[in-house]
Amino acid sequence: MTFVPSSALHGVLASIPSPSVSYIDLGPLRIHFYALCIIAGIIAATLLTNHRLTKRGAEPWVVIDISLIAVPLAIVGARIFHVLTHPGFYFGPGTDIWAIFRIWEGGIAIYGALIGGAIGAWLGCRWTGIRFWSFADALAPGLLLAQAMGRFGNWFNQELFGLPTDLPWGLQIDPDNSAFPKGLAPDTLFHPTFLYEVIWNGLGVLVLLWVGRRFGLQWGRLFAVYLIWYSAGRIVWESIRIDPSEIILGLRSNVWAAIFGVVIGVIIFFVQKRRHPGREPSPYVPGREWSPAGTVQSQESGDYVDVSEPQTIEVTSGTAPGQATSPAESTPAAK
């Protein structure tokens, strides 16, 4: 990999400073800002997903039941993927294998989180009766929002930055940081890849909300757009990062993961479009539907109709004009 020489970095007009601390101590408890960024992202994604699922007719906060399984598996998957794609950090002479479990020091992979989270979401959807693809579509904008918020953790940790640059928005990294490349001048600035991804993901949230509403993307097609959008940007940011990574056929392992993400997104979009040309009848699988107390779901519109007050349905078939209906022919509406 080629670095920009120190002489080429003079004349920098401005720069982005890195935080001087990455954690705070509250008595015996050490709180890492990296973890707080991830937790804040999970909360934001949960709130947005709950709003979107509820609008579709799902039980309020059913997303919590699904998240109880999906979030832990996502974290486990993210850590496993990172360890497998960075074996030199944890295995071999001079390494500490127990560092595998010190996740608060950083080192989780988004694509591992997607794999683990997808397994957990599928299990959670089976438990609650929610269609898996309905949940995935509802989650897609919130997932991008969570990823944007989580990237600030890399800023606090001064990690996963890009090549040296003399652009005005170059990122300052402490020279004594273990991630600072050897042989460069202490005032070298780097591409703030965390910020590039924050902007890209934030824009993606707006794009997903718009295309989902404009084109009525369901049956997993909005989630497919998420995969394509996020992975396309990740190919670019990952290509300019300089943190150690496994190289496969000349490309970083995460670049390959992003390429596969685009391909899988395209496949999901067109396969689901062909299999399900119409709209989803409900966010629930047949036989597991939920409706608010005192309502029934209209077969025509899918909306919930208030029937808390008894209603009379008059049966006129076979009844002569002026003839009174029998009690059996006048029944309260089903609740």
TrEMBL record:
A Pfam family of this chain: LGT
Keywords: Cell membrane, Membrane, Transferase, Transmembrane, Transmembrane helix
Membrane-spanning intervals of the chain: 32-49, 61-81, 101-125, 132-150, 194-212, 219-237, 249-271
Composition bias, Polar residues: 309-329
Pathway(s) annotated for this protein in UniProt: Protein modification; lipoprotein biosynthesis (diacylglyceryl transfer)
Compartment list: Cell membrane
Entry keyword annotation includes Cell membrane: yes
Cross-referenced InterPro entries: Lgt (IPR001640)
Region called Disordered, residue ranges: 277-335
Binding site for a 1,2-diacyl-sn-glycero-3-phospho-(1'-sn-glycerol): 151
Membrane topology recorded in Swiss-Prot or TrEMBL: Multi-pass membrane protein
GO MF annotation terms: transferase activity
EC number, as in UniProt: 2.5.1.145
The protein's role, per its UniProt record: Catalyzes the transfer of the diacylglyceryl group from phosphatidylglycerol to the sulfhydryl group of the N-terminal cysteine of a prolipoprotein, the first step in the formation of mature lipoproteins.
Family: Belongs to the Lgt family.
Name of the protein in its database record: Phosphatidylglycerol--prolipoprotein diacylglyceryl transferase
